[in-house]
Specification:
Length: 407
């Protein structure tokens, strides 16, 4: 953190119109929107700057989200460096089927790893726009949400002293296990959750992608996916039992399963390399309602999680951030509170649309491995329909790109 971006930690109470809890894509986007409108705010983040700029996360950004970043002056590096994807490929029944969604819709995906986006956003917020940010904040707590004078406290990492920050609004952008969601009164919260009953082994390989697009392997042994991240690094997924241990997946077993599940007639062999990350993800979704309580507004994973099945999570976080940042600016600069009043409803329309698509796509990915001949048969019927029915192809392309959700 640069000295200019750190608020004074004198121990005396501070005041900012907005406190943003969490410096991920949602929180930093909200902060940048506020600073562009000359609205002061404080971003509190429990991790260091190095950690948030390096931790591997998502990498696929939908075109509407990139245009939203571009509109707000936040997409310069992304537009210069991101790869454009206009097709994906399904592999099933020993064959490969390319799906050219760019030709069908005129739209595409941007592949830009989340650490690069976070690096861009934090540099713009702290170093260019002079926004206040406190890294390493400990024991963050939120107080008096039901009043028009909420406040936040935290422990300064350098001095160990408690700091108090008064504000008008709080943007809770600190994920599923953060203090923002935990601050909601349990009796007023409904969490709608769906567990898929499957796991994915998430892998990062020091190896170039083996195809120029995302690959979906729908196989009787389980799903496999390839998601390019850069010319040198590739994300892979392997379906596994929920709760599985990474120790059960040594190097040779990983590559053997990837070769089997992504194999198809006429495809080149996978480019193999060192595995630099292995994690088991239990596939589940959730939606927290309400997304608003008093002066606290949740955004991103603090409010909803969509499994990486459809690569929608970071896109939903950015959608929330655009709506929340713009609404806070309107309220604090002109007194127009309509955006804040309609914030949750506008967010949830897209959230539920993406949740439904994730469930549908999960059956396409995993149905052939369910051990049920009927499910396997209907799954293959869905897959074949994508490549024989223009209407089915158009509907899938719209949902895959997020262009069907026009809100």
């Amino acid at each position: 953190m640069t000295p200019a971006s750190a608020p004074a930690d004198s121990g005396a109470p501070q005041r900012f119109p907005v406190v943003v809890v969490g410096a991920g894509p949602a929180g930093l986007t909200v902060g940048n929107i506020l600073r562009a409108a000359s609205v002061d705010c404080l971003v509190l983040e429990t991790e260091t700057r190095d950690v948030i700029e390096q931790r591997p996360r998502a990498g696929v950004i939908e075109e509407w989200a990139v245009r939203g970043l571009e509109k707000r002056g936040l997409a310069g590096n992304l537009l210069d460096r991101a790869e454009l994807h206009t097709a994906c490929e399904f592999r099933f029944d020993g064959e490969r089927y390319r799906f050219p969604y760019g030709e069908l819709t005129g739209s595409h995906h941007f592949v830009y790893p989340q650490p690069l986006l976070v690096t861009d956003l934090v540099r713009e917020y702290a170093d260019v726009r002079g926004g206040h940010i406190r890294f390493g904040a400990r024991d963050v707590r939120i107080h008096d949400l039901d009043t028009d004078r909420p406040w936040v406290s935290y422990t300064c990492p350098e001095t160990g002293e408690r700091q108090v920050v008064h504000c008008d609004f709080i943007a809770g952008c600190d994920g599923a296990r953060g203090v923002s969601r935990a601050s909601l009164p349990p009796e007023r919260v409904r969490i709608a959750r769906h567990d898929y009953g499957i796991g994915w082994l998430a892998l990062l390989a020091e190896a170039p992608p083996s195809a120029d697009c995302v690959l979906f392997g729908c196989h009787a042994r389980g799903f496999a996916g390839q998601m390019p991240r850069s010319p040198e690094v590739t994300r892979y997924y392997l379906q596994c039992p929920p709760g599985d241990e990474v120790e059960n997946w040594p190097h040779e077993r990983v590559w053997s399963e990837l070769r089997e599940r992504l194999g198809a007639a006429g495809v080149p062999p996978l480019a193999e390399g060192r595995l630099i990350e292995k994690r088991v993800l239990d596939m589940h979704d959730y939606v927290v309602e309400p997304m608003v309580h008093g002066r606290l507004f949740l955004a991103g994973d603090a409010a909803h999680l969509v499994a990486p099945i459809a690569a929608k999570g970071m896109n939903l976080a950015l959608h929330d951030a655009f709506l929340l940042g713009d609404a806070l600016v309107a309220r604090l600069t002109t007194g127009d509170g309509s955006g804040l009043d309609g914030y949750a409803q506008a967010c949830l329309r897209r959230v539920w649309d993406y949740q439904e698509f994730s469930q549908w796509l999960s059956e396409v990915y995993h149905g052939t491995a369910a051990g049920d001949p009927f499910r396997a048969g209907t799954t293959l019927a869905r897959l074949r329909r994508l490549f024989t029915s223009p209407a089915a192809a158009a509907a899938f392309a719209e949902q895959y790109l997020g262009t069907a959700a026009r809100y």
